[in-house]
Design goal:
By secondary structure, the protein is α/β, with parallel strands linked by helices. It has nine helices and 16 strands. Helix 2 (about 35-45) runs parallel beside helix 3, helix 5 (about 210-230) packs antiparallel against helix 6 (about 265-290) and helix 7 packs across helix 9 (about 375-390).
């Protein structure tokens, strides 16, 4: 057995216990106080890392200096820590103890795997020519956590050469990883519209300015952006999912609100669509005598994987998890991930790790019955640790 597998074996039970603890005690985005305390305590008691610093209130920046840290590269390994507002519906012995909050996206696996990676990589520190920063990140689901790291004045991201992160895949068997270079995931921007007209008696529409007819126009015209203005080979999704307004069959309302989401795989397309939506709103304002307030928060980016880093991840996973452990994804997904903020600044590798039980059914994230196989913790630790070792050219 290899040195890395031996090291992982020696801490695996402990890290599975960490995973169970985190799963039982989930916390929502940017409220990961107990999670951060728990991880910080484990780091202080069980490791000799060179730095443990809070980022924001619930993030942790951990530094492990190898040999010759001043001249070697710095790389980041990142794991997110937040849970979702979902009530768990599994009958597992380690189910969530917080009604209405659940680790339904597997971030409990990412956090325990990152802690495991610190423990394992510490044993190699004399052979690593450079440093590793571990980012225990809050608030991925709210797309705010990565920015707390990037906005911290002490963290100089320009000094960093590479960033790697993992995400569980409920349709992939544990022990395997899924890789893709280039576009991996989409930007995910909420869209909010408030259409204001003038309400009144439904029998006298000519005395009103009907926001409902304007809403119907807006919905139809927005769909033409995807079908008529962007290339069919440049995937975007524009879904409107929530519409509200009106109170009775014979009352024309004053206003209608609409909410939806925009997903894009290219930054330029995302910008183009954002501007096109404003143009369509202006047209409807003029033609239908309403006002439309369009809100675009703009806190998301598409996620790109660096080709060279994906080659490193492939070699690393084949060595650590087995020659047949790597599968390649044909297409990107249209979900969002705030790891994109790091990968926008420095070369990144976002790696999907298997979380499905062998012969078990695939599990879908963000579902009250989502679960991960115990083997996902080992897959995560080995994926992160082997990536770092392969990057620094260390035998493992
Ligand atoms: Zn999620
Ligand atoms: Zn997630």
């Amino acid at each position: 057995m290899s040195e890395l597998l031996d090291l992982e074996n020696s801490i695996n039970r402990e890290m599975v216990d960490v995973w169970h603890h985190l799963h039982q005690n989930p916390e929502l985005s940017m409220q990961e106080y107990k999670t951060a305390d728990f991880i910080e305590k484990a780091l202080r008691e069980k490791t000799g890392v060179d730095r443990i610093k809070r980022v924001g209130e619930t993030g942790l920046w951990v530094e492990l200096k190898g040999a010759d840290p001043e001249r070697g590269d710095i790389i980041i390994l990142r794991g997110d820590m937040d849970a979702l507002p979902i009530t768990e519906q599994n009958a597992l012995p380690y189910c969530s103890r917080s009604p209405g909050v659940m680790h339904a996206c597997g971030h409990d696996v990412h956090t325990s795997a990152l802690l495991g990676a610190v423990r394992v990589l510490e044993k190699y520190r004399e052979r690593i020519h450079g440093s590793i920063w571990f980012f225990f990140q809050p608030g991925e689901e709210s797309l705010k956590g990565a920015l707390t790291f990037l906005n911290d004045p002490e963290i100089d991201i320009a000094k960093v050469k590479a960033v790697a992160g993992i995400h569980v895949a409920g349709d992939l068997e544990s022990g395997k990883v899924r890789l893709k270079e280039g576009p991996v995931l989409a930007s995910a921007d909420p869209l909010k519209f408030l259409i204001k007209g003038q309400g009144g008696h439904a029998a006298y529409p000519h005395g009103c300015r009907d926001p409902l007819v304007a809403a119907a126009n807006l919905i139809i015209q927005l769909q033409t952006l995807v079908s008529r203005e962007t290339s069919p080979l440049d995937a975007i999704v524009l879904s409107l999912c929530h519409i509200q307004g009106g109170s009775k069959d014979n009352v024309i309302p004053n206003e209608i609100s609409i909410e939806g989401t925009l997903r894009a795989l290219k930054k330029e397309t995302r910008t183009y669509i954002q501007e096109a939506i404003r143009r369509i709103c202006q047209g409807i304002e003029i033609s239908l005598r309403v006002s439309i307030n369009f809100e675009f928060e703009g806190n998301s980016l598409p996620l790109y994987n660096d080709g060279e880093l994906i080659k490193i991840a492939e070699k690393a996973a084949q060595k650590a998890l087995g020659a047949d452990s790597v599968v390649f994804a044909e297409n990107p997904g249209m979900a969002g991930e705030d790891f994109a903020f790091f990968a926008d600044k420095i070369p990144g590798a976002f790696i999907f790790i298997g979380a499905r039980t062998k012969d078990g059914p695939p599990a879908s994230g963000h579902n009250p019955e989502f679960y991960t196989d115990e083997g996902a913790v080992r897959t995560g630790i080995l994926t992160l640790a082997s990536f770092a070792l392969e990057y620094f050219g260390v035998d493992f």
